[in-house]
Design brief:
By secondary structure, the chain is of the alpha+beta class. Helix content is 22%, strand content 33%. It has 6 helices and 23 strands. The strands form 5 sheets. Strands 1, 2, 3, 4, 5, 6, 7, 8, 9 and 10 form a 10-stranded mixed β-sheet that branches. It is rod-shaped.
Length: 356
């Protein structure tokens, strides 16, 4: 399966052969744009042949699950010549944004009736062939390369009608399997393919590293919060509904284990709070608190002496507190004298205090 992922065009070896030169409507290839659905953009397959001829082929886009499938119906015009053809997909959206994938290559087989440029072979008679050979020999003899006195090869420039010196010297490096960005050596197609594949691998490696770097701080849409996927917005109500069952427990008894800060509901609806691990505290209702506050007893005259120090009690409708064995009445507002009343009974308080 031919895939496009993160801008990388990946063609498996079993999908590289697309047919023989001149084949028409025989094969169909599909490119799968992974994890992206976009049928509104324009997709174009760009093919470059050995003679630098370029063919552009519009691809048909359709959605397949979470992917986009691009279909190439291969016609004669697309594979007009045999050999290795470079391939690249161009993507253009409606906003004018244009994106290219990395390059890969297809293989096209040769057809007997076609020449290396895709045209039909011309059939000639033996005499025509001999004439052609003689003419070719004459042309080659007249324009064949030669080495000048400085040891540089000179070739015939058909446009200028004269020989020109090349940068190649007879003592230069002979054609071999080496190739670099600055090399002028003549090399074979196999060497070129290995060189291009190496560059493509480097490009793909860089693209992968770049993509991984950009995605390193991103959270996957498969990640969940409270079992809710991050593929869409999570409202506060939905999050609360998902967390609510985790904020309390039911069927609580004091012997149950719990988690600090968790609420609990008892067997008959009573409320508990866990203030430490394995320690549930029963929270009383306010009606129960009213009853618990009714702790001050009404005593008779025979019981007054039996009240211990520190306790409060009612006796004859008055609130007392026992202090050092004495019954101390707790004064109410209407039992308190004003300063004017005190002055009238014992005199000016400030004057008396100053005289002491």
């Amino acid at each position: 399966m031919i895939t496009i992922q993160n801008g990388k065009l990946l063609i498996p070896d079993n999908d590289r052969f697309v047919g023989f030169a001149g084949d028409n409507a025989v094969n169909v290839k599909e490119f799968v744009l992974m994890n992206e659905v976009d049928t509104s953009s324009d997709y174009t397959l760009c093919l470059r042949f050995d003679d630098d001829t370029v063919r552009t082929v519009p691809l048909t886009a359709s959605a397949d699950g979470g992917n986009t499938v691009l279909t190439w119906e291969i016609s004669q015009e697309h594979i007009y010549a045999s050999g290795i053809v470079q391939a690249q997909v161009k993507i253009a959206d409606s906003d004018g944004v244009i994106e290219h994938t990395t390059k890969d290559f297809f293989l096209i087989g040769s057809a007997v009736e076609l020449d290396e440029y895709g045209g039909e072979e011309e059939y000639v008679t033996p005499s025509q062939m001999m004439n052609s050979i003689q003419q070719a020999l004459q042309t080659v003899t007249m324009t064949s390369p030669y080495v000048d006195e400085d040891g540089y090869w000179c070739i015939y420039d058909t446009q200028a009608g004269e020989y020109v010196r090349t940068p190649y010297h007879v003592n230069g490096i002979a054609p071999d399997s080496a190739m670099s960005d600055s090399s002028d050596n003549t090399v074979s197609n196999a060497t070129i393919k290995r060189y291009v594949d190496t560059k493509a691998t480097d490009c793909n490696t860089f693209s992968t590293a770049y993509t991984d770097m950009k995605n390193s701080d991103k959270v996957s849409t498969t990640r969940k919060i409270a079992q809710m996927p991050l593929s869409s917005d999570i409202s506060a109500a939905d999050l609360m509904a998902a967390l609510l069952p985790l904020s309390y427990r039911t069927n609580i008894t004091p012997n149950n284990s719990g988690t600090r800060g968790q609420l609990g509901i008892g067997l008959v609806g009573e409320v508990y709070f866990c203030n430490a691990d394995d320690h549930w505290v029963h929270l009383a209702a306010y009606e129960d608190l009213y009853e618990k506050m009714n702790l001050i007893a009404e005593v008779s005259s025979d019981e007054v002496d039996q009240v211990e120090d520190g306790n409060m009690f009612f006796y004859n409708g008055t609130l007392y507190v026992k202090f050092d064995g004495a019954d101390i009445a707790v004064a109410k507002a209407n039992d308190v004298y004003t300063k004017a009343q005190i002055d009238s009974m014992i005199g000016d308080v400030e004057t008396l205090l100053a005289a002491i």
